[in-house]
Write a structure and sequence with these properties.
Strand 1 (9-17) and strand 2 (23-34) form a beta hairpin. The N and C termini lie far apart (49 Å). The protein has one helix at residues 103-119; strands spanning 9-17, 23-34, 42-49, 64-67, 79-82, 87-90, 94-100. It is mainly beta and 127 residues long. It contains 1 helix and 7 strands. The chain has one domain (9-119): SH3 type barrels (Roll). Strands 1, 2, 3, 4, 5, 6 and 7 form a 7-stranded antiparallel beta sheet that branches.
């Protein structure tokens, strides 16, 4: 049995959780990984937003990568991918695939996420 969604797919998600516990709904995501099961029950993605004015070139949001609409991704307008948080997406909340990003865009999103991770500092307290 093949996987339902592939890395790089843009999918419509009915429900998801923000990192602080708030609930979100009805949004697009780029799939960047799955739970490594033969038939994944959970995917991991970056949120897609149509607020192009919040791209890294136009705002303070350094990790918002632009994504131009095209016939491959099927976006209705030029958008951004927010590359500073990965979301856990249960398969049951993915409604459908709308398109996919090309490999260059996918790699650019991962590079931005890794750059974001490098800015985080972890403090380990010794007891």
């Amino acid at each position: 049995m093949s996987k339902k969604y592939e890395i790089g797919d843009i999918v419509f998600v009915s429900k998801y959780d923000y990192d602080k516990g708030e609930k979100g709904e009805n949004h697009l995501f780029v799939i960047i990984d799955d739970d490594n099961q033969l038939v994944p029950i959970e995917y991991f993605g970056l949120i897609v937003s149509s607020h192009r004015k919040k791209s890294k070139e136009n705002s303070k949001f350094k990790y918002n990568e632009p994504l131009d609409k095209n016939s491959n991704n099927n976006l209705h307008k030029d958008s951004i991918v927010k590359c500073d948080q990965i979301y856990s997406i249960p398969l049951k909340n993915i409604q459908f695939k709308i398109g996919q990003v090309d490999i260059d865009d996918y790699m650019r999103f991962l590079e931005a996420y890794n750059e974001f991770l490098s800015t985080l500092t972890v403090t380990i307290s010794e007891e």
